[in-house]
Amino acid sequence: MTGVVVVVVVLAAATAFGWWRKRRDGRFRPLDASADHLAPASDSVALAALGVRPGVVTLVQFSAPVCAPCRATRRVLEEARGTVEGIALVEVDVEERLDLARELDVWRTPTVLIVDAAGRIVQRASGVPAKDEIIAAVTPLLAGARR
Q1: Which residues contact 43 (CB under 8 A, 6 or more apart)?
Q2: Alpha-carbon span 36 to 62, nearest angstrom
Q3: Helix-strand-coil split of the chain, %, nearest 5
Q4: Could you give the CA distance from residue 89 to residue 58 in angstroms, rounded to a whole number?
Q5: How far apart are the C-alpha atoms of 20 and 31, rounded to whole Å?
Q6: What is the pTM of this model?
Q7: Which of 46, 48, 73, 44 is nearest to 61 (CA)?
Q8: Which residues belong to any copy of the Thioredoxin domain (predicted)?
């Protein structure tokens, strides 16, 4: 009887984790700028080292060569960039820039950061985001950048 209970508990926990992961994966989350690890000064130095230019809304993708979802994310980001004018795309190989990935609190690939024209990370997503969600996230930032 104990074995049956253990199996049921493990299956329930795995199901709950899978449901949670599916709901969260690829969704953009706004960032709390007051958090210690998101200090704008340190972020701007790391982002500049990655090639993010001030005054441009930028999508920064952290990926790895062996990551299949990273290739799908790259395609989606390029489609979004082709649809919406005025956004830049920077792809970062985490194996080459692990120090900056850690500094920006990136712990899995693919991770996409949305950087506004002021050089602040405003949203992030882990996993493959939807093209419509990317466009919805960057459009207000572009309107603010054109003023």
Answers
A1: 104, 119, 120, 121
A2: 21
A3: 50, 20, 30
A4: 6
A5: 19
A6: 0.76
A7: 73
A8: 28-143
- Residue 90 tokens read as 């920077």
Which letter does DSSP use for residue 38 in this model?
G
Q: At what angle do helices 68-83 and 131-145 cross, to 10 degrees?
A: 50
The secondary structure of 46-112, three-state, reads HHHHHCCCCCCEEEEEEECCCCHHHHHHHHHHHHHHHHCCCEEEEEEECCCCHHHHHHCCCCCCCEE
What are the tokens at 8? 């049921």
Residue linked to tokens 């920006």: 104
Q: How many CB atoms lie within 10 A of CB 114?
A: 23
Phi-psi category of 114—alpha, beta or left, where left has phi over 0 and alpha has psi -120 to 50?
beta
pLDDT in tens, 8-47: 888 888 877 777 766 666 677 777 654 544 445 567 788 8
